[in-house]
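Quick one, probably user error.
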């Protein structure tokens, strides 16, 4: 089969063997895979990963090994963190495999990812996709879930003054999640056309150049930039909360004095549970306007070029033989 791989920081379309599922795993025929900023950062050296890229997908189970055969034929998405699930693993026993010290992470750490015709995952990581949720929506469950995770970490009130900093792919998906938790939301970015996608009932948009002295109870840094923290910290109210969603291949010096002086809570936020995102999609949330283009797998290099272009929206890869809409 064909797979898009990172080898010595280079993007390569490789021919590899079709994987067999290990005990407890399913094999999934991938329909669509999404290109994430994390994939772009991996090609710059982030996480030191070598192998098949990608952690966003939707596909159909075609084989299981020592697992419920009822999975075969089901359309699925999958949680990306694969915990050890040892009897004495504190994190796995808490249901927090994302923090297991021995975890694998799909397409990021020690586990080949989604940009291939087939992938394998433990069945405990899989969730069925409702029939009425399209592939184009389902493929974005993983980044959408990262947005809903904020609502589980920060208990917003309807009057909590919240801002999202960054109008990239993740920022726009966070927008879709947070608008369900507060009626006072401001989205700040550099691109008017992308802020138009962020606009909605009760949502204010603001170009970064027009940001003056405004301050917010909660601000989410989704800039994907090393300068995002510095910008965000200036616009959090004393005793407010800064949620960090940015991961980059390099970092710069940060002045932490405002955090101490203004007693700001800094909260790291990574992956989220898929169930809230799937429920939202099942109830009619449509994230397909955030998709820029879908390329066949063979055009992965062109797809990555578009995905890395400033201002681009979500770029997808479609696998050979995929029934994706």
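Nope, works fine. Designed sequence:
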């Amino acid at each position: 089969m064909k797979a898009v791989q990172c080898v010595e920081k280079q993007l390569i379309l490789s021919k590899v063997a079709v994987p067999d599922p290990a005990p407890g795993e399913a094999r999934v025929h991938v329909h669509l895979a999404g290109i994430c900023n994390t994939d772009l950062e991996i090609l710059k050296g982030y996480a030191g990963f070598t192998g098949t890229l990608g952690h966003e997908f939707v596909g159909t189970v075609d084989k299981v090994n020592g697992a419920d055969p009822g999975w075969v034929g089901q359309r699925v998405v999958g949680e990306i963190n694969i915990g050890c699930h040892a009897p004495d693993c504190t994190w796995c026993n808490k249901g927090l495999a994302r923090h297991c010290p021995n975890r694998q992470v799909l397409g990021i750490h020690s586990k080949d990812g989604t940009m291939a015709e087939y992938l394998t995952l433990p069945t405990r990581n899989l969730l069925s996709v409702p029939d009425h949720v399209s592939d184009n929506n389902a493929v974005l469950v993983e980044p959408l879930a990262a947005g809903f995770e904020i609502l589980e970490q920060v208990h917003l009130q309807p009057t909590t003054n919240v801002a999202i900093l960054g109008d990239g792919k993740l920022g726009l998906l966070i927008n879709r999640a947070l608008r369900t938790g507060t009626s006072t939301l401001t989205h700040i970015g550099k691109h008017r056309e992308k802020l138009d996608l962020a606009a909605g009932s009760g949502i204010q948009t603001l170009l970064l150049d027009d940001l003056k002295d405004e301050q917010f109870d909660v601000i989410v840094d989704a800039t994907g930039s090393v300068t995002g923290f510095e910008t965000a910290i200036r616009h959090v109210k004393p005793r407010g909360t800064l949620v960090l969603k940015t991961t980059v291949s390099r970092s710069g010096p940060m002045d932490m004095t405002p955090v101490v002086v203004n007693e700001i809570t800094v909260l790291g936020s990574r992956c989220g549970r898929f169930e809230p995102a799937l429920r939202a999609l099942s109830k009619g949330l449509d994230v397909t306007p955030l998709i820029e283009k879908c390329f066949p797998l063979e055009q992965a290099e062109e797809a990555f070029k578009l995905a890395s272009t400033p201002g681009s929206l979500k770029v997808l890869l479609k696998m050979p033989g995929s029934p994706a809409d």
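The radius of gyration is 20 Å.
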